[in-house]
Write a sequence for this structure.
DNA sequence: ACTATTTCTGGGAGCGCTCCTAATTTTCCG
DNA sequence: CGGAAAATTAGGAGCGCTCCCAGAAATAGT
């Protein structure tokens, strides 16, 4: 470990502190001869500039925070979040930012964290995962503090906030329409929580597709889930008594639960009940599952979210931006489309 | 947002910078009258001390890094890691440390990250998730840098390193012995990767239990998995042709894959094939799965790991410590023990 | 009441960097 | 070759805090 300072390197290289600083920060006006000499000393001494000093002097920390509020941390059951986190972490690294992690577990955590997050000179910006009523407070706090922020997922009050989301309504509209086109008449859905924008929007898309295609809207075919496998399983059990011939689950994990419930009956997928999920998690394409699903660009989202935030940080906050990413319906076996083609 | 400094607060409260500093850091020698006056100003102005300045002056950042090396980030398929991360994040928060996240995706990431991690004055300590050959390099680097470090999971070269792990050998020994006691004769196992200490140790426990109970060790009943559901599924398919009457999977996720494979045959669980997993993920106790499994204290591990690291940070590195946590065999339905009791 | 202690408070020095300006060196061109 | 312009380098000031020591105030002791 080196307790070396710029000054030490400067001395060893026979130049001044400022010159070393310029070399370290890769600035232009340094002669090649000197630059090389300094770089050489830096290399051999394994010098790394002190982060705190740099942050203090430059008022930039090159750190961004990822805040997962209460409502979300519960969701850690869903592989969607780890995947997203992975994308975000990669993008941060790519841009030489450090990611720090604020997993809010309960009210108490929240109280301890917010002061930490809002300390001046600590974070250059924040990413907040959102979509639930409860998250409104975090978002409000960040706005008040004027910390650059990008929200992941549309929050309930989105007017003065920059967020990145997918077009949930259209995505589920397309998925359900696909089932309609395949001739399904009694299409059920297992929704996300109805206190989340995701849950609400995906249900809205379902409703739109059903009514637009003149199918009756049967409340018995709509069950609220919470993105867990279990809620998919139990939800499907409820639905099954109403003779569905298809089900659209608002997440792959719930679709897997639903399929487990279906498989416990004599019914067959997709012949008797077609299934479509949402997310396109890696496992959905694995082995014999072959789930038809809505692919959302999880890793890509992570990248966009980070790059948007960095833009805010480096160029100042201007108008709130709303970035909507495209999704894609991935047709595999569980919707029955391939079977029909073969027939 | 406040661009207030200690000095500003001092002025408003009619005291000196030093006194405000004492109040902020909750030090003792301040009269109650003054303390209250200062606290009041701090409250009303919503002042938060600048983190970088504090770090620079005190040489402590109150940040710890969580490094998930290459080999592990691939494993993000397994809910074990999100759960562990949750425990770690909570423990950090509890102790007023900030957690930053270094998810190494590839060699290139690694090269960008290490300088960042090793910058002096940036991290007070590091947590490294380990257990694979590839991680040796990260660990070596941290040792060289003399950064306080705790390794999560026994690394391959563990002599001069503090790590926290569970007793993998005994845990799987107990699980397999349980199957033996239940009268199973052809016990199979789906192992973790054989380039990981976890994989190796859990297999060792299996082997010990089999041979100690005088059952033949049949190589056809041992298949290597990689902790994914798919590897459990395919692994089980291979095993099924050799007529097993039980299977011990080195993770719950693989156990679920194995059960999926079994359920596709006429065989029944636990009557024809008993199943035991490892981890006790929440889903294992859900609904109709009721997986018998080895419970490891995931959240608890997170806490221990963080507290051990904080101890190293605050009291200096002494002898490397090896902390082994206990596990517990959770008997549910898939091992057949309950069925027998009822019979 | 008047020291001798103890408790509390103030301000200087310094953490290691960036940024700015001034000094120095190099380059260019008549 | 000389002087102006351009390129390069050096060093001061300051980022906002902690830590230390000296000084002031409060308390105790006789």
């Amino acid at each position: 470990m080196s307790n070396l300072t710029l000054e030490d390197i400067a001395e060893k290289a026979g130049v001044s502190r400022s010159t070393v600083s310029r070399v370290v920060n890769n600035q232009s006006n340094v002669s090649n001869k000197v630059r090389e000499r300094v770089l050489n000393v830096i290399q051999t001494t394994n010098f790394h500039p002190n982060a705190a000093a740099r942050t203090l002097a430059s008022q930039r920390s090159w750190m961004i925070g990822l805040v997962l509020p209460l409502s979300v941390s519960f969701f850690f059951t869903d592989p969607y979040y780890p995947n997203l986190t992975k994308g975000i972490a990669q993008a941060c690294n790519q841009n030489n930012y450090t990611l720090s992690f604020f997993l809010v577990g309960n009210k108490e955590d929240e109280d301890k964290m917010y002061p930490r997050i809002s300390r001046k000179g600590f974070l250059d910006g924040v990413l907040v995962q959102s979509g639930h009523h409860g998250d409104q407070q975090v978002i409000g706090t960040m706005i008040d503090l004027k910390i650059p922020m990008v929200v992941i997922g549309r929050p309930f009050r989105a007017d003065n906030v920059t967020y990145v989301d997918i077009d949930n309504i259209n995505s589920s509209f397309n998925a359900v329409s696909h089932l309609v086109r395949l001739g399904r008449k009694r299409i059920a859905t297992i929704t996300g929580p109805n206190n989340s924008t995701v849950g609400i929007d995906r249900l809205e898309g379902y409703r739109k597709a059903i009514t637009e295609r003149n199918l009756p809207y049967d409340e018995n075919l709509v069950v609220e889930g919470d993105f867990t496998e279990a809620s998919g399983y139990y939800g499907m059990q409820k639905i099954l008594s109403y003779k569905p011939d298809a089900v659209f689950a608002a997440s792959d994990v719930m679709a897997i639960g639903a399929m487990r419930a279906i498989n416990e009956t004599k019914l067959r997928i997709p012949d008797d009940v077609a299934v479509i999920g949402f997310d396109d998690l890696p496992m959905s394409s694995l082995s014999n599952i072959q789930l038809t699903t809505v692919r959302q660009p999880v890793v890509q989202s992570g990248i966009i979210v980070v790059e948007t935030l960095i833009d805010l940080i480096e160029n100042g906050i201007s108008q709130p931006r709303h970035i909507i990413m495209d999704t894609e319906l991935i047709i595999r076996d569980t919707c029955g489309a391939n079977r029909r083609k073969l027939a």
